[in-house]
Every structure is written in C-alpha cells, then in structure tokens.
Design goal:
The protein is an alpha+beta fold. The chain has a 4-stranded antiparallel sheet, covered by helices on one side.
C-alpha cells in the first residue's frame, strides 16, 4: 500500500474540526486503506477489519462515524450492482495516483447510485444522511442522491450570497454539481469573488443564478489566481511635479478684505 499525503492545512480545516476524535481517526485510517483512487469497500465489517484490526470498536460506532464523514462531504458512499463502496472526496487533488486501474468501481459507472434511505431523506436537510452498511435490493428504499441534500446545501449558500436574483434558474443538476464540490470549497469561492469585487467600486455582484450556474468556477481552489495588486500613481499638475495644496478661497478672501479695511 503506497504512503499517503496529509497536508498541514488539515489542522485548520473546518470540516475536520467538526468531527469527533473517532470520526477523524476513521478518516485517516480509511486514507491508508483505500486503493490508489481513494475508493474502498463500504461494508461495515470490511471497514472494521481493515481500519481497526486491533481495536475493540463496534459496527454501530463505525457506521455512525461513516455517516458523519458523508454528511460533512469528506466521503461519498454509493452502490454498484447493489454492493456498497466509498470514495474519498477530492482524492486526486492531494494524492498521487500510481495504479493504472482502481480495485473498485467508480461513481461514473452506469448503475452507480449514491446511497440514501427513503425514510431518512428529511434528515438530510440537517446534514445527517443515513448510509446502510448492507445494500438493500428493494428499489423502494434506495434512491439516487436525495434532492433534499443538494437543495439544503444550495439554500445555505444562497442565503450567504449578496445578490439574491434568479434563484429559480438554478437547476437540480447544477445544485447536485455544487453538492459534489462541497460546501467548504464553495464558501471559499464566494469569499474570493466578493473580495475581488472590492477591488473596483463600479463592479456589482452577479445575479445569484449567474454565479451558481457557472460564475463560481474561476474561484474554486484549483482555478483561482489571486489578482496582482494595482498601485495607483499620483497624478501631478502638468506644470510642476510637487503635491498641490488645497486652499479655502472664501476664507482667504475674507482675510484679505479685513486687511484692506484695517489698512
């Protein structure tokens, strides 16, 4: 198993900070258990045997921790041919891929489905999705990514965006794309865009529909380039190069008039 890279920025990550100690430990142990593409078998007994071979932990502890990693946008769990797998989000940005082929199927498979339980779809609004440890062959209880999950994230981002116009023009597909990027990175993109606007007084925020359909792309972590600071040169008078002074001509005129009277 190749060595994995953990960057120092993980210490100040809001997503990691919101995890309990056990949830964070599970994340690190999954990192060294996944294949070269950040994928792994998502069956709880398999995770338990691979990640905690010498620890006395329960299936329930692992399942709850995996739920939290999923709701935080750190891992994605899905099924292919009714078998559960997981994918660590943004793996390719931080790790070196050496293997030519993954050991596990990807989310791009034709029949890949992100696991949600129908009875807990409403819970996903509060970022607590339920992930089944065993695949359920009943099509009535397994759905693709619940709309409530993507919609809830979009509503939080929309609330934080300054120009709330065109909300209905953002499609479900665009909301799902935003959900795949993750809340933390989207908030960084918004912050960069708003900071850029401050550089020019005449610029106004795009309509929310424009920003969330495509306007955010240039401000994502992998695309953003901080603009160079522009130093404004002082404009000098055409007849001299020293700094001009401001005079109160009305006051000067009064003083001159008083002197003439006194004289």
């Amino acid at each position: 198993m190749p060595n994995r890279i953990i960057k120092e920025s993980i210490r100040t990550s809001d997503s990691i900070n919101d995890l309990t100690w056990f949830e964070e430990v599970l994340f690190y142990r999954l990192m060294v258990s996944c294949d070269d593409y950040g994928r792994f078998d998502a069956r709880i007994p398999i995770i338990k045997g691979s990640c905690f071979p010498l620890k006395n932990v329960t299936d329930n502890q692992i399942e709850n921790a995996l739920n939290k990693l999923s709701s935080a946008g750190i891992v994605t769990t899905y099924t292919v041919e009714e078998k559960p797998y997981l994918q660590i989000v943004a793996w390719e940005k931080h790790q070196t891929i050496r293997a030519k082929k993954s050991k596990y199927p990807s989310l791009d498979e034709a029949d890949a489905q992100i696991i949600t339980h129908e009875s807990t779809c409403k819970q996903m609004i509060s970022d607590v999705p339920v992930i089944q440890s065993n695949p359920n062959p009943n099509p009535n209880t397994i759905n693709t990514l619940c709309k409530a999950d993507a919609n809830a994230l979009f509503e939080r981002l929309w609330k934080a965006y300054p120009n709330k116009r065109g909300k209905g023009q953002v499609s479900d597909a665009k909301k799902r794309k935003i959900a795949e990027i993750g809340e933390e990175e989207m908030r960084r993109a918004m912050a960069r865009y708003i900071e850029d606007l401050k550089q020019d007084d005449w610029r106004k925020p795009q309509n929310g529909s424009t920003f969330f359909n495509s306007g955010y792309v240039d401000y994502l972590d992998g695309n953003y380039e901080k603009p160079k600071a522009v130093v404004k040169k002082q404009t000098n008078n055409q007849f001299h190069n020293f700094e001009e002074r401001d005079y109160d001509y009305d006051e000067l005129e009064k003083q001159l008039f008083k002197r003439q009277i006194g004289g």
